[in-house]
Amino acid sequence: MSSLDGRVALVTGASRGIGRAVALRLGAAGATVVAAARGDHADKVVGEIQAVGGTALSVSLDVTERARVDEVVAGVMSELGRVDILVNNAGITRDQLAMRMSPEDWDAVMATNLTAAFGCARSVLRQMLKQRSGRIINIGSVVGQMGNAGQSNYAASKAGLEGFTRALAREVASRKITVNVVAPGMIDTDMTAALGEAAREGMLSQIPAGRLGTGDDVAHAVCFLASDEAAYITGQVLAVNGGMYM
Question: Which of 14, 58, 128, 154 is catalytic?
Answer without folding.
Answer: 154
